[in-house]
Recover the amino acids of this structure.
């Protein structure tokens, strides 16, 4: 039986009143259980919501981040048919105009004349609105409805860092999405049954120098995968998981992500020690973002493309993956 998401008043706190990580919050769950408010630690707190929309014809990535001293919002659009890509980002001092909640399923947004993002949480769904007056010389507008099926599990993980740091993440994949995006005069609709949204919700206290890698995909039939490394390495925890029919299957061991040496768009090989993951990721486009503020930066490379291969279900059944849209991202930050 699927456990419901607790009401806000029933959520366990991530931190105590002094901002120290509660030991009982460490670990993994299939549903969001925590209130991720972080008292204190000004300047070291990192909070973000990252949405990625994948459809057979196009992809949209939207990031909203509050780093205390700066706010950041970015939109990236990729036309998979033509290869055309456009991007726009905005910074805001002291994160003015950034509205990020302490729980994954709550409204959030960013206010700026050149980039507007609003995510409204409604019963059983979320509505995403994006407006950029000038992105690659044309206006972009998107209105998308993201469904939240009651049976769909998610990866929810809290991992401690050295020196009192920590991070809480929620990975929601395979959320059905409808609606459309307009870039200039061209309309890009979502293809019903083949369009999915993913949410990466992160709240933590990070060291000055950090790095991590993540891969994710979703396809029809409730099949999806989430694989990561870097930020969990010293904790003994893992965020690696597979979805079959929307039901989560945790992978306790590592998933190895290796890219060929030829060039930036060479294929990646993904494999697990438990032999449940054998995938090839073929990039279509590489997006690079490197927002800077003096000596501080977050250097991110995100490849968009398709996954092909075979997964093993918990019962040992071979599940083929064919042309599943997704991405691989790698970030190094001094923040």
């Amino acid at each position: 039986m699927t456990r419901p998401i607790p009401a806000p008043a029933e959520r366990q706190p991530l931190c105590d009143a002094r901002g120290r990580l509660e030991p009982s919050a460490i670990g993994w769950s299939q549903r969001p259980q925590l209130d991720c408010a972080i008292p204190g630690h000004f300047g070291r707190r990192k909070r973000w919501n990252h949405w990625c929309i994948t459809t057979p014809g196009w992809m949209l990535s939207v990031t909203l981040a509050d780093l205390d001293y700066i706010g950041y919002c970015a939109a990236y659009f990729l036309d998979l048919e033509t290869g055309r890509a456009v991007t726009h980002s905005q910074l805001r001092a002291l994160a003015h105009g950034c509205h990020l909640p302490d729980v994954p399923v709550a409204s959030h947004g960013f206010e700026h004349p050149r980039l507007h993002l609003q995510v409204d949480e409604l019963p059983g769904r979320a509505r995403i609105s994006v407006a950029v007056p000038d992105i690659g010389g044309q206006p972009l507008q998107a209105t998308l409805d993201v469904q939240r099926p009651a049976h769909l599990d998610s990866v929810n993980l809290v991992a401690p860092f050295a020196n009192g740091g920590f991070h809480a993440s929620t990975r929601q994949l395979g959320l059905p999405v409808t609606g459309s995006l307009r870039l200039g005069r061209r309309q890009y609709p979502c293809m019903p049954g083949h369009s999915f949204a993913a949410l990466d919700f992160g709240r933590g206290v990070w060291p000055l120098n950090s790095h991590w890698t993540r891969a994710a995909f979703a396809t029809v039939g409730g099949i999806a995968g989430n694989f990561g490394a870097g930020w969990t390495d010293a904790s003994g925890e893992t965020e690696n998981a597979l979805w079959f029919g929307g039901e989560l299957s945790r992978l306790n061991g590592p998933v190895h992500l290796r890219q060929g040496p030829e060039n930036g768009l060479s294929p990646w090989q993904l494999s697990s020690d438990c032999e449940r993951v054998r995938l090839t990721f073929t990039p279509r486009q590489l997006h690079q973002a490197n927002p800077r503020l003096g000596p501080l930066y977050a250097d991110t490379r995100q490849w968009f493309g398709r996954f092909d291969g075979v997964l093993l279900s918990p019962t040992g059944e071979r599940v083929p993956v064919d042309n599943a849209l997704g991405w691989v991202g790698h970030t190094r930050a001094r923040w």
Q: What stands out?
A: The first strand starts at residue 12 and ends at 13. The chain has a mean pLDDT of 94. The chain has no helices and 26 strands.
